[in-house]
Amino acid sequence: MELSKKYPLYDILADNGLQPGTAHTFDTYASAIRVALEGRNPSLQCEYDERQDSIGIAQINICLDKQFKVIDCDRSYGGLNHGCPKKHHNINYAPFSRVEEGVPTGVIVAGK
Question: What is the pTM of this model?
């Protein structure tokens, strides 16, 4: 199953006005993805980028049950927020050149 085609995260973000090379809050990213997941919560992981001296998205996770149905990531390892700044701080969305260097997205299959 091509999960990346079923959940095209770059397109989901773009459809919500979130473009590479911009920065937004955790809530802005999570809300945009939540709409595409019919209200289910994604999990975001952030990391410090020394080259840009800022925090950026390292990974976006969509959680699935054993039948490959989307579920909330609330109970995933680390919860919804893995090292991302709280509330009013912006998180960088790497330009495509940085994405190609290995900024991953992922799908977690949870045992529910």
Answer: 0.79
